[in-house]
């Protein structure tokens, strides 16, 4: 804990009289209770005193606990307690007034700071320095101040709570002692007379010889955060903790053994509950039982306001009073509660006389022992905390910020039963760091630190300290260091040296906490962004968004091998032990495949005082496992074990893996124990962890597949055609190979093109622009060429002559660009440039046909007398894939810009050239750069590919084809990987897709531009060689923000709502989707997130498909298409096999091979797309059209409402209209017209002819 050169320890040296001279008592005094006096007082001693102690107060070396004893006395009388808590007396004004109130006579914003005995009073001089030294930035300080203002409680509005506490004082003071009762009689009286079930822990008392008595409490205390003004405002409210000290006289010497203390504690609590619910008490509150920190051994009373508008109605504060029975610190000998001692005997031995002698032969009960110790140190810890709130002015604010951080991450014992870390432990850790924890044994924090510095310093220690190898001790311990390390997963011993504050924290919880702390430190240390929202404002505990894989166990194990009789002594609840040990088992099997594994289950709710407390095994508990994957190792196929010669290790390996373990010889000659996992398809390889978890749970806990819901690959099937699709239409074997075949074909084509010699100019570069070549196409590209072998009549389908064989399979064209070496011989006329390109296409085609066997090349042109490049291209078939090659001439864009800038050019000509320029920039500049960046990111983050494909599938499934560019979806998907805050970066397509939906629904699209750093230059090191890229990206960001402000500032702008820009200067979403469609996209995303929540909490997982089914009720017209005429119908999510069988049926005769060979492939042929384009070209002014290009057989039409408004008829109105009546101030006007929607809809159907089967006219 400390270094050899500079040791620091705590020792009892300072007396009460000495400390009182430095800290004079306030005018209003209360006295100590002798039963609760702190036994020792401590101060810090160092071998070498530091010369520079600017940051510590003058009395920094005074003892911790002894000085506190003179600052805060235990309180006998409840009136003093409430006055203290509510800041209504002189004592409280001095006690807490200095924490957040300024001194009288000073300006409100002045800073009071001790430094070498001097006070800094001039804010004007030192304000800038304070911001620089004490906070990250001025903005960060303002955000902290505003947050603290929002979460702090108004202590001036707590008069009714004060009345309630006074009433409690009266009730407890007026209670009478009760006769000692045997267990059976006590149970009977409380059940029949008071209707109270005594909250005995399990196992409950049965044939015990001792009796249960009651005497009124010896003292009462407000403990916890409330008396220190450290509570924060939360939705579920805050707690006001009242410690009730039970008298020594009701306990016996050995009550620390065999649950005797906990049984008497439960009886005492039941007596208090009976007094509180007595109608004659005059106190109206809802009385319930609950557990403290989820420990069934330590029940407490909850008092919820009855909301009766009485003087004691504190419901407006949204708080709960908790009554916590406590004991004096010296009630039991401390050595009897050592972590290495056993204090719970098996039931068969509990009545024997030699129980004490058996303790060495039984396993220790550290959790049991710690539960007793915790009840003894409430007041001591309050004193310690109070002392540091006086010495460190920002201590309370730092604790509040820490509570916000913990709450946002689910470290909330009020709700989450799986986490043991809370705000109290954070504050104790901060106290330790104010005295120790720094380099060379020095302190890590100082009293003069700001709240920002305190929380950051504590976060840094929490993130980087190795609690397993270097346990933390606040003071010298009476127990051996070994006794703590061997019996607890994590060790942080309080200043008494006896209580491990981390006793309830498992190693899994500690790893989770440190993982979150490391993320927070990463955000704290970022220089470009302050990340305040990611640290404090964003809710992080949503499992479906936080973890790459989530498992929900719905059938808990009834019995398993590890839960032995010895374990039951310290863990009487099998569920608690299961929750604590299951992560350890899974980590042994998953090894470095995962970065983190966590558990989550809800804490048992409070229960009525008339009921028995519920147990986890009897309650319906949602038990979840969360996995963060290591993308570099998670898809590994082999788990290597020890060599067979290492018998002990080999046995352990075989015990872990059961029948899966086998011995194999590997290529390097090693013979090892190993486990091999198989997979089928590129997506299924990402589910190996799923297989491992299911196998281990089944082997060791008997949890079968039906007992667990594993959420990881449920979306994978939506990027594959249905298994009902015949092989002739889609080859399922291609899916298993992923994108490798098309990338291989692209590489092969690139080599062929670059090797062509007999050309006027040499090809210098080949660039990809197709989504298939950046791993972003929804479906794995399918080779276009069908098999030319005639199939057998048995076991295969035959293709019909009735329909064109080419419509069986849609052939996706793959776009690439060809760039030649620089030459000045290109013509200066744009039309001539296009003709020159056409000549190159012909020449390349000839070279390929004559020199390369197996390649088919075709020149395609629509109009050679045009300035637009995309109208002509070279189509090349290689390895079954169709590549569309277009030539990029770098001067073409500048030639277009010169014509546009020429003042003598006609406006109509300029408009044509502007459109051509926009097309060329997108095709030759934006798309190649975009493809390169997305491809790089997909290689760097393997799961990004699946995320993009799922996001595209979702957009198109909701009929949004034509309203959203696929590049827009790709950039949006990349954003959740490049800006994953407040979570870690996704490592699975499942969570990546859900985060895309979350971003869509939660992003403030109206006020905040989404800027995506696809090149990852914005946050690069500015001192590195690529700092120029950083500067360029930063300047682009400023330009984009300015452009966004200009667009949003223009009230008449018609630009799209969803604005996404990249640091390369590309902007997506400027023109589409329109505001109406953007709003629908957000609503659909929000509904999808809600649906996922519902699915993951239910017993079934079959509803995932509903996320990809478009609701049709909002469309005015529905046009239904003939699936047989849709080349992409096989891609439909809800494909009907009967339609495919009409194409592929045994009753038709196979087309001749000659006929098939003569038919040329129509790449990109999709009559539905042509029909849709025609509808949009004719009717886009009056209607919006919606369609799913991936196999959709419905077109949705929504009329624009403005055209239903009556208006005067005129020539060239622009749409079909009909007369309508309209009320005017002068009566009915019969000369107005409105949209003739039915006639227009029928015209749309006529245009579809054989493609349309039926329609539904709704408006």
Strand order, sheet with most strands: 7-8-11-10-9-16
Largest sheet: 6 strands, mixed
The percentage of residues in β strands lies in: 5-15%
Low-confidence segments, ≥5 residues, pLDDT <50? 1-125, 786-807, 1021-1026, 1146-1160
CA gyration radius, whole angstroms: 37 Å
Structural class: alpha+beta
Would you mind describing this structure in some detail?
By secondary structure, the chain is an alpha+beta fold. Mean pLDDT is 82; it is low at 1-125, 786-807, 1021-1026 and 1146-1160.
Question: What's this entry about, in short?
Answer:
The chain is of the alpha+beta class and 1259 residues long.
Topology:
Blueprint: E1 8-11, H1 16-22, E2 43-46, H2 64-69, H3 78-86, H4 90-100, E3 114-115, E4 118-119, H5 123-134, H6 138-151, H7 159-173, E5 178-181, H8 183-192, E6 212-214, E7 219-223, E8 238-245, H9 260-277, E9 285-292, E10 295-305, E11 319-326, H10 355-358, H11 366-374, H12 378-391, H13 395-408, H14 423-433, H15 451-464, E12 472-473, H16 481-487, E13 492-493, H17 507-524, H18 532-537, H19 543-546, E14 549-553, H20 565-570, H21 574-590, E15 594-601, E16 607-608, E17 623-629, E18 638-640, H22 647-657, E19 662-665, E20 671-676, H23 682-685, H24 688-701, E21 708-711, H25 732-737, H26 740-754, E22 763-768, E23 814-820, H27 830-851, E24 856-861, E25 872-878, E26 881-888, H28 891-901, H29 907-940, H30 944-957, H31 966-978, H32 989-1002, E27 1010-1012, H33 1027-1049, E28 1060-1062, E29 1067-1068, H34 1075-1096, E30 1117-1121, H35 1137-1143, H36 1153-1158, H37 1167-1179, E31 1183-1187, E32 1194-1199, E33 1207-1208, E34 1217-1224, E35 1227-1235, H38 1237-1248, E36 1252-1257
Helix pairs in contact: 3-4, 3-7, 13-14, 13-15, 14-15, 15-17, 21-24, 28-29, 29-31, 30-31, 30-32, 31-32, 32-34
Biased composition (Basic residues): 1-10
GO molecular function, one term: RNA binding
Keywords: Nucleus, Ribonucleoprotein, Ribosome biogenesis, RNA-binding, rRNA processing
């Amino acid at each position: 804990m400390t270094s050899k050169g500079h040791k620091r320890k705590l020792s009892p040296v300072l007396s009460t009289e000495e400390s009182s001279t430095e800290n004079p008592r306030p005018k209003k005094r209360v006295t100590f209770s002798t039963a609760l006096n702190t036994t020792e007082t401590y101060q810090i001693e160092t071998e070498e005193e530091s010369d520079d102690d600017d940051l510590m107060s003058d009395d920094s070396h005074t003892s911790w606990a002894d000085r506190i004893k003179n600052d805060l006395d235990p309180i006998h009388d409840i009136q003093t307690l409430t006055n203290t808590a509510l800041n209504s007396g002189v004592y409280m004004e001095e006690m807490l007034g200095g924490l957040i109130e300024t001194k009288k006579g000073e300006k409100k914003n002045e800073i009071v700071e001790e430094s070498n005995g001097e006070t800094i009073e001039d804010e004007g001089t030192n304000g800038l320095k304070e911001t620089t030294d004490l906070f990250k930035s001025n903005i960060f300080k303002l955000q902290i101040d505003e947050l603290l203002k929002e979460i702090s409680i108004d202590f001036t509005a707590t008069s009714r709570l004060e009345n309630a506490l006074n009433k409690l004082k009266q009730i407890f003071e007026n209670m009478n002692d009760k006769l000692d009762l045997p267990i059976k009689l006590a149970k009977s009286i409380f059940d029949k007379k008071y209707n109270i079930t005594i909250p005995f822990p399990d196992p409950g008392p049965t044939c015990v010889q001792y009796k249960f008595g009651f005497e009124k409490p010896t003292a009462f205390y407000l403990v916890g955060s409330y008396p220190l003004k450290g509570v924060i405002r939360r939705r579920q409210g805050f707690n006001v903790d009242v410690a009730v000290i039970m008298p020594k006289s009701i306990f016996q010497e050995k009550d620390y053994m065999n649950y005797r203390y906990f049984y008497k504690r439960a009886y005492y609590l039941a007596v208090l509950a009976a007094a509180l619910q007595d109608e004659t008490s005059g106190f109206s509150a809802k009385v319930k039982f609950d557990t403290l920190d989820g420990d069934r051994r330590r029940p407490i009373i909850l008092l919820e306001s009855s909301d009766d508008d009485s003087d004691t109605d504190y419901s407006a504060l949204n708080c709960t009073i908790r009554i916590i029975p406590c004991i004096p610190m010296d009630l039991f000998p401390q050595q009897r509660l050592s972590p290495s001692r056993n204090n719970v005997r098996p039931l068969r031995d509990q009545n024997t006389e030699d129980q004490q002698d058996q303790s060495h032969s039984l396993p220790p009960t550290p959790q049991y022992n710690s539960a007793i110790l915790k009840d003894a140190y409430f007041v001591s810890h309050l004193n310690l905390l109070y002392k540091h709130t006086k010495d460190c002015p920002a201590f309370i604010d730092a604790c509040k910020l820490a509570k916000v951080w913990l709450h946002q991450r689910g470290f909330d014992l009020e709700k989450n039963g799986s986490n043991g870390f809370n705000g109290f432990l954070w504050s104790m850790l901060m106290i330790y760091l104010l005295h120790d924890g720094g380099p060379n044994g020095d302190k890590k924090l100082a009293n003069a630190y700001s709240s920002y510095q305190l929380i950051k310093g504590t976060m840094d220690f929490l993130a980087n300290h190795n609690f397993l190898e270097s346990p933390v001790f606040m003071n010298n311990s009476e127990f051996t260091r070994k006794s703590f390390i061997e019996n607890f997963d994590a060790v942080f011993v309080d200043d008494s040296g006896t209580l491990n504050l981390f006793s309830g924290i498992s190693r899994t919880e500690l790893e989770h906490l440190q993982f979150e702390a490391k993320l927070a430190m990463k955000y704290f240390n970022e220089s470009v962004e302050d990340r305040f929202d990611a640290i404090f404002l964003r809710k992080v505990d949503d499992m479906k968004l936080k973890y790459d894989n989530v498992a929900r166990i719905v059938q808990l194990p009834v019995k398993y091998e590890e839960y032995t009789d010895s374990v039951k002594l310290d863990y009487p609840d099998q569920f608690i032990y299961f929750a604590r040990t299951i992560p350890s088992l899974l980590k042994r099997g998953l090894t470095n495949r995962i970065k983190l594994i966590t558990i989550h289950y809800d804490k048992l709710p409070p229960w009525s005082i008339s009921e028995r407390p519920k147990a986890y095994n009897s309650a319906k508990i949602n038990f979840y496992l969360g996995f963060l994957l290591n993308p570099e190792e998670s898809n590994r196929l082999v788990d290597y074990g020890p060599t067979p010669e290492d018998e002990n290790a080999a046995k352990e390996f075989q015990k872990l893996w059961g029948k899966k373990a086998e011995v194999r010889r590997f290529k390097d000659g090693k013979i090892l124990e190993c486990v091999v996992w198989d997979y089928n398809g590129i997506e299924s390889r990402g589910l190996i962890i799923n297989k491992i978890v299911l196998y281990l749970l089944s082997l060791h806990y008997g949890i079968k597949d039906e007992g667990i819901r594993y959420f990881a690959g449920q979306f994978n099937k939506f990027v594959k055609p249905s298994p009902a699709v015949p092989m002739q239409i889609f080859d399922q074997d291609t899916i298993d190979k992923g994108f490798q075949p098309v990338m291989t074909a692209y590489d092969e084509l690139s080599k062929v093109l670059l090797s062509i010699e007999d050309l006027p100019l040499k090809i210098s570069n080949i660039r990809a622009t197709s989504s298939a070549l950046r791993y972003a196409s929804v479906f794995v590209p399918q080779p276009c060429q069908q098999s030319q072998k005639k199939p057998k009549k048995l076991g295969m389908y035959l293709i019909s002559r009735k329909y064109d064989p080419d419509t069986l399979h849609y052939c996706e064209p793959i776009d690439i660009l060809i760039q030649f070496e620089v030459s000045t011989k290109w013509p200066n006329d744009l039309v001539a440039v296009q003709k020159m390109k056409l000549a190159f296409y012909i020449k390349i085609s000839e070279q390929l046909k004559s020199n390369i066997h197996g390649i088919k090349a075709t020149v395609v042109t629509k109009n050679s007398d045009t300035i637009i490049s995309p109208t002509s291209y070279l189509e090349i078939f290689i390895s079954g894939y169709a590549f569309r090659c277009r030539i990029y001439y770098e001067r073409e864009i500048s030639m277009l810009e010169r014509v546009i800038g020429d003042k003598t050019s006609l406006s109509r000509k300029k408009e044509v050239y502007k459109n051509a320029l926009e097309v060329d920039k997108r095709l030759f500049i934006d798309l190649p750069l975009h493809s390169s960046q997305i491809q790089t990111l997909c290689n760097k983050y393997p799961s990004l590919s699946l995320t993009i494909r799922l996001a595209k599938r979702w957009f198109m499934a909701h009929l949004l084809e034509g309203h959203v560019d696929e590049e827009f979806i790709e950039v949006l998907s990349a954003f959740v990987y490049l800006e994953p805050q407040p979570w870690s970066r996704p490592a699975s397509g499942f969570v990546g897709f859900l985060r895309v939906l979350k971003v869509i629904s939660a992003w403030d699209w109206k006020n905040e531009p989404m800027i995506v750093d696809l090149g990852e230059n914005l946050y690069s090191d500015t001192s590195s060689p690529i700092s120029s890229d950083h500067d360029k990206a930063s300047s682009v960001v400023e330009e984009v923000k300015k452009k966004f402000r200009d667009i949003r500032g223009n009230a008449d702008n018609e630009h799209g709502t969803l604005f996404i820009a990249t640091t390369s200067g590309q902007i997506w979403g400027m023109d589409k989707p329109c505001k109406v469609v953007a709003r629908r996209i957000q609503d659909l995303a929000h509904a999808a997130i809600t649906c996922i929540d519902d699915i993951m909490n239910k017993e079934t997982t079959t509803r995932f498909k509903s996320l990809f089914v478009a609701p049709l009720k909002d469309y005015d017209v529905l046009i239904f298409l003939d699936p047989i005429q849709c080349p992409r119908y096989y891609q439909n999510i809800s494909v009907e096999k009967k339609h495919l069988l009409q194409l592929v049926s045994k009753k038709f005769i196979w087309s001749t091979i000659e006929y098939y060979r003569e038919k040329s492939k129509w790449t990109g042929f999709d009559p539905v797309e042509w029909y849709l384009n025609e509808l949009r070209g004719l009717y886009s002014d009056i209607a919006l059209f919606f369609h799913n290009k991936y196999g959709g057989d419905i077109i949705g039409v929504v009329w624009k409402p403005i055209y239903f408004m009556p208006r005067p008829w005129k020539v060239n109105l622009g749409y079909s209209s009909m007369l309508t009546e309209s009320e005017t101030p002068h009566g009915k006007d019969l000369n107005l017209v409105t949209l003739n929607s039915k006639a227009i809809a029928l015209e749309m159907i006529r245009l579809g002819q054989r493609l349309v089967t039926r329609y539904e006219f709704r408006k």
